[in-house]
Please model this.
Amino acid sequence: MRLISSIAFSVVLAVSGCMTAEGTSQSASVKASDEQFAFASQAAKVCSDSFPNEKAAETKLKSLGYKEVGGQAGFRYYRSENTGVILVIGRMSQESICIVGLENMTPDQSYKLALPWVNKYDAVTNAERGQGLSKKAVQAWASFDDNRNVYIAANKSWQEQREPFPKTPGASIRLIYLPN
Model:
C-alpha cells in the first residue's frame, strides 16, 4: 500500500509542479495584489477546513463563486473569475489533494500562503526531518500523527505547461492529506 502511495505522491508532485523539467515554469517578479492574495488565502482555508473531505471543499468553493473549469484523472479544476486564483482538488488513491495557484504570486508569497496550513497541522520542514528539498519548492513541510500524514509544499512557480495553469508567471501551494 505504501508503494502505491509513493507512486501517487510522485504523480502529485509532477501535477503540482514540484518535479518539472528545468526552465519550464516562471516565477513572478511582480507580486500578486493584496486583494488577490486574500482570495488565495480564503481558498487555502477552505481546503484545510474541509480535508480530508475534498467534496466538502468543492461545495464550499462553489458557494464562494468558484467555477469548475475542467479536470482529469480524479482531479477537478476551479477558477475564481478576475482573482487569478486557480485550484486543483481531488483524490489519488487515499490521498486528498489541494493545490492553490495564484497568478503573479511570488515565491515569498507562496511561502506565506502555506503557513496557515503549516500552523494548523503543526508541520515541520523537510530539513528538520532530514529530507531534501526540490529545486522547485520554496519550502516543504510534513506532519504525522496516529490518524493522518500531511505533506505541504510552497512552490517557486507553477507549471504553466499543464492544465489548468496559464502561461503566465505565478506560484502554487500544495496540501496532501493521507489518512492512516
